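Can you give me the bound-state structure? Components:
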Amino acid sequence: MSDITLDLARIMVVNRARWTTIEVAFWIAAAAGYFLFPAKLVLLTQMLIGGLFAMSLDLLLGYGGIASFGHAAFFGLGAYAAGLLAAHGWGEPLSGVLFGGLAAGGLGLAFSSVIAKVRGAAVLMVTLCIGLLLFEAASRMPWLTGGDTGLQGIDMWPLLGLFEFDLFGRTAFWYAYAVAFLLYLAARRYIHSPEGLALKGIRENHDRVPMLGVSTARRKMIAFTISATIAGMAGALLAQTTQIVALETLSFERSVAALIMLTVGGLGTLIGGFIGAATFIWARDVLSALNPVYWMFWLGLILIALMLTARGGLVGALTLLTNYLARERHPR
Amino acid sequence: MTAPALETKALCKQFGALKVTNEVSLRLKAGGRQALIGPNGAGKSTLINLLTGVLAPSSGSILLEGAPINRLTTDQRVALGLGRTFQINALFPHLSPLESIMLAVARRNGRLGRPLQALHRETDTTDEAFALACSVGLGRDCLRPTAELAYGRQRLLEIALALAGRPRVLLLDEPAAGVPASESFELMQAIEALPRDVAILFIEHDMDLVFRFAETITVLVAGTVLCEGTPGEIAGDSEVRRVYLGVAGG
Amino acid sequence: MIARIVIVAAAMFAACISARADDRPLKIGWLMSYTGPGAAAGAASDAAIEVFFKTFGKSVAGRKIEIIRRDTTGPAPDVARRLAQELIVGEKVDFLAGMDYTPNTMAVAPLSTSAKVPLLIVNSATSGILAKHPFAVRFGFTTTEMAQQLATYASKQQFKSVYTFVHEYEPGLDAEAMFIREFKAAGGAIAGSVRAPLKATDFSAYIQRIKDANPDAVFVFMAAGELPPIFLRQFKEAGLDPAKIIGIGDITDESSLPAAGDAALGVVTAFHYTQTHESVANSEFARTYKSIAPDRPLNFMPVVAYDVLKAIYQVVEAQKGELNPDRTMELLKQTKFESPRGPISIDPATRDIVQTVYFRKVEKRDGQIVNVEFASTPDVKDPGSAR
Amino acid sequence: MLGFVNILLGGIAYGFVLFLMAGGLSITLGLMGFANMAHAALAMVGGYTAALLIGKAGWPFLAAVVMAGLTAALTGAILERTLFRRLYQASELEQVLLTIGVVYAAIAAATYLVGPEQMAIAVPAWLDGNLRIGPVDLNRYRLFLIVTGLVLLVSLVGLIEHTTFGAKIRAAVFNRRMTASCGIDVDKLYALAFALGSALAGIGGALSVKLLGLDPNFPIKFLTELLIVVSVGGLGSLRGTFLAAMLFGIIDVVGKYLLPEIGAFIIYATALALLTVRPQGLVGRPR
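Here's the bound-state model for the whole set.
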């Protein structure tokens, strides 16, 4: 009766979770970057960290349809948590990253109930206020966070007791690469789990989900906690690899940068956050080196052009390209 | 005597002075087939929203298999066995029918809450969802995005999604509304094939469907139950004819 | 495939190192804020670079001078650290200079120490930086030395009670602590203290607290930029006399003095440079500076930037272009010359600037609101932190 | 006690400055539903126009402020016709990012055209200094702001709620297709409404220079405050925006006076509390 058999259905479900060429290409290119641009290791590391942070927002926005204007609150909290741990004598990196993730995840959990109740434009404003609250709190407690001068005195123990965090940023790069890759795998498992499917359901049709017996509040709570934890870990990585934490990690500008990176890369593609981050940070670095005073003008124009044209972001465009190439090579 | 599948006691809903649901007491027996008819604006949709918890009642109680569910949220009521379909398709445009059904199945199998559990490793969820899709005749296009499906076939997905929760009570909100004659045959078959142990309350204007499936019919007018009886009684009742069909006398 | 990439990269790396003959250009990494809140500092330092090239020419000891400018976008330590790391590892700079914000300096100083690249600080005013970093030298000023001078001045003026108002960040907290310690030591009383966040733009609440305390004078430190003029205007509008204010020179800086206008008249400040300073060096510098940037205000920023470049020039010339970091630091410690601000030298023990601190009062001179020097204390050293 | 009256007046005046700037945003973001992050950039355009006209061309204060409104309206109209119009149907996020691109470009352009230094506006004699009324000496400029703010509130509410032009805008925003089908040129209507919002931004920007200062970073510095005022007030409601502006103005100044250590913390905490309790805003209708 139907030409779709059970086996085909199963294969289709498996295919949806398969790695695309763009994902594989990105992670290989990132590793190759270490060898190709030895002088730019710190920049590459900050691209990975920016990508991880953008990806954490993609879970909420790309997959759950929950926009956030204050996601830097979690990033900054993770940075300060890991920074304070190291500044007060415990410089072990891995436990520091976990601690940063836990602190931010706790905040995410706490605020998810507040944010779950709010819908539409109000979510942007509530998350904006959360971000500003944390920024203000950190700036008003110089005795703890170092205030505007930033948190100093972070000295990191060697990674796994072997690899020193040196000036050239070699260890820092592979450390950030490994943590980012592991969290990417975890995020992939999450969006391809039933929990991830429920989150997509919320994005597609928020009011229909309860009619399937699924509690939207619980799904948002889980999504927020995971997203905040990953953002916190990204912040912790920045604190550990730059050995300083600035108020800027909690700033509105960093939340907006995450939104830009995600939209440039491509929403709801997971790898989009990383590709968007790499492109945005690279462009900002090149433009500001070329013209230190007026680079924001060109960045603004690029952003405007992107918003008027490529709605699917780079991944959208790249997917079209790879599909086109695939069809060219062996047309069905 | 087993408790009725669904029962309401003096259920009321007021918006300010306007009494939209007025002392409605319904009894839907287990496995029953009951139709709810009434002119537009009689308060049918409000009643369904009260039953599913989208709206909170002003007074009165709702019991599912004898247990009060007034305090429960919509998803808790559905988990206890109350399913419904929507008059205007409310589905997941970019998800495929298979994925939509898998979500409902996964919830029922308790597979949610474990973010690192890969979906494709649990073949039982896929299998059950696929079987359900085929049972309502959606096997053919259960992998295409739902938005690309024809309107009639989306109605079938509504029913499959409701069934995926293995409901004890199923509320069908105008299942045949807007379905062209060419596609209504499959829909009739799907409704006919609904399991006998599930109690069904359906709102419908299509009198053929009502008189074909309903064992009892309740007539709702201006938020109040006018009368209730077998199709034969209702067809002959002059009061119903006057109010509903607008025709004078017997 | 990966193997081939690694071999090529290694070859490139080796090539860079072998070219260390002395014909290599002299590279100076210049880290300033060209955008964000401190953008005026970047613009002023660019003009100073032009004045330096016009005065000293484009090369020293046969090596072409290359100044690589990078925008630290304001107080952003992670950006400053990344840029410094790229300049050291990628561009292989011989000197790092600039540093207009304390958080940026604290992020970059550890790199200068571990890579042995001399770091010349233009304007971050916190005193604790130099101790831990042997390759750092400060040519700017510290808020602690200014606060100490002002405390002495306040006691000489027989002010009984002084209220302190500072911006809440490292240099501000240093200034507040030093002033309070010195003024109390000289027998004075503190009428009260309040701090404002760097972001605040409305000061009416703080000014009302000052008005309630009704002190003889108000000690003020604020980061140079757009906020001091707003504070001074609101201070005058609240019915208080600006002449009651004794502050560190940032608040009547030439770049924001016009915006303050009459609200600054009578304000007494202590600073290391004043545009109206009478000296041959200053008038020559001012003439060249005006020819390059006619509409750009002449304040301390370009003067200190110019001094830094001059010090580098002298040190490279002394080593005939063949630089050795330790030898460079020895020479930098012996820096001593007449700067547009007046005679300056580096204290060999602390690598901090030794300079004259000038007391100035804001007056109206032929239609222009300017700072006029009326007293000075020569050879002032940074007294260290009082916290 | 006298001190407290001054503080209260300072708070009210600061509230009016916020309202002068946020009024236009409550039309474009609130009423028209277009998430325009570049609103403060239009205020900057107004600020610089007035500052240059007064400073360089010697214009009288009030004429310069009116001209500031017109220049901002023109800039707003150009931006709307070329860029914003294409994204009316787009998601809020895309509108946000497009307008943030405009903010980036505006900051760099201002730095290029006028330089990074601080700009000031010379205020005429009748607006300078204080006015002694009984025991209290009130600041003339703050009083002027309060009066202008009230005039603006009344005329705006009148325009939006009691004129056909206002009715047409509200109809278009509520149901664009239906309004168009009634023969109203919605496109032109949106352009006019946007220009009105921009004019308000320009006037607000020009009037706020004396209190808030003016430099190329103006658009980013006040973006978050304006967003909070408009959203807490209730999207699309002018009264709500006015109420929220007053509330925040007073809380900010009084808060800093009583508890300087906490400072702006109070504002954001209040805003968060209000937004979670009434997501639709103080005056907004639940959506």
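A couple of observations. The mean pLDDT of chain A is 88. Residues 90 and 256 of chain A are 32 Å apart (CA to CA).
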